[in-house]
Specification:
By secondary structure, this protein is an alpha/beta fold. Helices cover about 40% and strands about 15% of the residues.
């Protein structure tokens, strides 16, 4: 009993000492792991790698950053790790899919967290996803997909590239045939080149514009619609998917489903990280996204940078979680369809 009490007091003293440290004292000589919820080579990993090479310069104590890839479940395996197993001291952060944070609203039993409880650090961009078809198919608009089948590639069952074409089929009578199971956007684009599939409803406009410009220059693809809350400045003539809806209720359901697009590439830490360390992470993240060296690397890597603050993400999620239950139920029904 005395030994147990002594051990308890020693641990308590160690915890108190750790909490008394300044952020600089805590991070000095340490590493921060960035858990990436996808395989290496995808957009999330590229953002994480670029961030990790520069953010340490703006962190108190100048810790090093290292990426750890934890793919699966459309980012949910990584999100669950951060929620339940990650160190709650500021030495682990993550980037997963932007939709992971709202999966609990859809009743996904694999989402074992409340998205509002994470400490959101910020996002590196606002995501405007697009739906594209190989021009060789002759499909040039959404109206064409209401007349003819288009085979599109996708990733997980809960990813936007599966959910949105499925919702379009149900709400607007399109004829998308979805082939899931691809790991990254590049995998789907390669499948399009090989004619394994003929379209992709969930690829980022930035990826196409900055890293696959030949698809546009050579007119190999047609853009059918955008998936975002507002149009990208480059795509003012391309309709938003919600603008194709036939009534206001359907439009509101689609807007609820698209809310995570404003989170782009979200980085977050576990609940329970001390407030001063969360602030330090947020401040360093924002400073990095303005850093000339980082921006030069981002441009070279084909990354579009638009800062979304951690507080912006938190506010967005509070609003999204407060959506009317009937709209959430309709969205859940669309996601549950096979």
């Amino acid at each position: 009993m005395i030994h147990l009490l002594r051990a308890f007091l020693i641990n308590l003293a160690a915890m108190s000492c750790a909490l008394a440290q300044t952020p600089a004292e805590f991070w000095q000589g340490k590493q921060i792991r960035i858990i990436v919820g996808f395989q290496a080579g995808g957009s999330s990993g590229i953002y994480a790698e670029a961030l990790g090479r520069h953010m340490g310069r703006y962190m108190p104590g100048n810790p090093a950053f290292i990426n750890q890839y934890m793919p699966g479940g459309g980012g949910l395996i990584a999100a669950n790790h951060i929620a339940s197993r990650a160190a709650k001291d500021g030495t682990e952060i993550a980037i997963t899919s932007r939709t992971a944070a709202v999966e609990p609203l859809f009743g996904n039993p694999q989402a074992k967290f409340d998205g509002r409880q994470f400490n959101w650090i910020g996002s590196a961009n606002i995501e405007n996803s697009i739906c594209v078809a190989n021009s060789s198919t002759g499909i040039a608009s959404f109206a064409d997909v209401k007349q003819r089948e288009l085979i599109v590639g996708g990733s997980g069952a809960d990813a936007i590239d599966v959910i949105m074409p499925r919702a379009a089929n149900s709400l607007m009578g399109s004829k998308f045939k979805i082939v899931p199971g691809y790991n990254t956007s590049n995998d789907v684009l390669l499948a399009m080149e090989r004619s394994e599939v003929s379209g992709f409803c969930g690829v980022g406009w930035t990826l196409i514009k900055l890293r696959k410009p030949e698809l546009l220059a050579q007119k190999k693809i047609n853009i059918l619609f955008q998936m975002a809350l507002k149009k990208h400045e480059d795509l003012q003539d391309v309709p938003l998917i919600q603008d194709l809806a036939s009534n206001d209720d359907d439009r509101r359901v689609l807007e609820f489903m698209l809310a995570p697009q404003d989170m782009g590439r979200p980085f977050f830490a576990p609940a329970g990280v001390p407030e001063d360390r969360v602030k330090a992470l947020r401040d360093a993240f924002a400073a990095t996204l303005k850093d000339a060296q980082f921006l030069k690397e981002a441009e070279k890597s084909g990354l579009e940078i638009q800062l979304v603050t951690g507080q912006d993400i938190h506010t967005l999620l509070e609003k999204t979680y407060a959506t009317a239950p009937n709209l959430i139920e309709r969205a859940k029904a669309l996601v549950a369809q096979k």
